[in-house]
Amino acid sequence: MKVLYFSWIKDKLGKSHEEIQVSDNIKTINDLITLLKQNNENYKDVFKDTSSIKVSINMETASFEDSVNDNDEVAFFPPMTGG
Amino acid sequence: MKVLYFSWIKDKLGKSHEEIQVSDNIKTINDLITLLKQNNENYKDVFKDTSSIKVSINMETASFEDSVNDNDEVAFFPPMTGG
Amino acid sequence: MIKVQEEDFSLTDEITFLKKRCNNIGALSTFIGIVRDKREDEKLVSMTLEHYPGMTEKMLNKIDTEALNRWDLLATTIIHRYGKLLPGEQIVLVITASKHRKEAIESCHFIIDWLKTKGPFWKYEKTVDKGFWVDAKSQDLDEELKWNN
Amino acid sequence: MIKVQEEDFSLTDEITFLKKRCNNIGALSTFIGIVRDKREDEKLVSMTLEHYPGMTEKMLNKIDTEALNRWDLLATTIIHRYGKLLPGEQIVLVITASKHRKEAIESCHFIIDWLKTKGPFWKYEKTVDKGFWVDAKSQDLDEELKWNN
Lengths: 83, 83, 149, 149
What we know:
By secondary structure, chain A is an alpha+beta fold.
C-alpha cells in the first residue's frame, strides 16, 4: 500500500511517502494507523491526536473507519488550506 | 428652478432640462408636478402614474412630499439601472 | 476611488494602480459588467448609457464610502462608463482589496448591487429595427435590500 | 477550466481566453489570492505551497463541476499555483462568467470558499528566522458550510 504524508506530518516523520506491506487483518484506516504506531515513536507522536488529521483514499476524502486494501493509495494530512 | 428629465421622460417631453419660474405657493415636488401638468398634455401623460417615476433634489434622492424652493435643482427619472 | 468616464478602462492598469495605493493585500475581488450580444432573443446593436452628471459622481462616492465603512478594506476602485457602447464592451468595473477574502468578495458584491439601484444611469438598447429604455428589475431592488441587515 | 501550475498567471490573458470559450457574457467576476507582506505583525519572507499532485486536479475539477451545476454559468477558470511564492505574488485565480451578475458573483464566492477547505494545499510561511505551517481556520469551515443550504 502506498502511503503519503503532507505538511507537518511529513516533517515529523521525515518522509513524504512509503510503501507499506499490509496483511489481510488491516481492514480500515484505523487498523493502518495502529500498525504504523507499533514500536515507532514518530508515528505514535503524529497519530496521538487524530482529530487534527485528515485522510484520503485514492485521492478522495475518507474517514478513519473506511476500508482499505493493499492496492489503495492512502494519504495523511492536516486540514487543507487552499485558496 | 432648474428641472431635469432623463430617459423616457426626457423623450416624451422632448427636452432634457428647463428653467421653471415658481411662485411661493409651490412648496413641494407634488406642487411642482401639479404646476407642470397645468394645460399641458405631455406633462399630464408623463406624470399620470408617478409610481414609476423617481425624483431628486440637488442630486439627492427625494420624495414627492419633500419641500423645494426656487434655488433647487430638481430631476425626474425612471428607476435607475446602473452597473 | 471612483471614475465616471466615456472611454474604456483596462483591468490590468486599474489593478496595478490600486496596488500602488496600499499594501499587505491578500484578496482582490473584481467585477466587470459587459454589454451582452442579445436583447432577449434579438441581436443587440448598441447600448447607450445616459447618466446624470454630478449626481453620478455623488452617488458613486456615497457607495464607495459606504463599502469602506462596512468592511475592512485596503482600497477600492469603481469605474462606470456612459455613452454609446457596443456588444462585448465593458460598462462598469469594481475592484476591492482586503487582507482576507470575505471582506473583498462581500464588498464587491455590495457595490455592484447598490450601483444597480442607486447609480443614476439609464440604458437605451437598440436592436436592428427598434429602441428600448431598459426597465429596472424588481429583483435588483430585492438584491439591494438584502444589504440592509 | 482548471489549471494547477508552478508558474504565474496573467489575469488579462485568462479573461481573453475565457471570452473565446463563450458568448453573450454580461457579468464577469474574478478573485485573486495574493501572498501578504506580513505574517501577523512580522515581515513575511516567503510562502511555500505544498500540494497533492493528482488529488489537486481531481478536487479542482470537482469544485468547478459543482459551480457549473449550481449556477447558470457561461464559463469558469480556476488556476491554483504551488511552490515557493514571495509576498505580493498571486496564489490563486477564479473567474466566473454569466449573463447576469448574481450567478457570476455567487459562484466565484463559492469556488474560493470550497478551495479553502477542499483544495489539497498546505502553506508553509517563512519569516526572517522561523518557519510555520499555516493552520486551517475554523472560520473557513463555517464559510464552506453556508453553501450546503
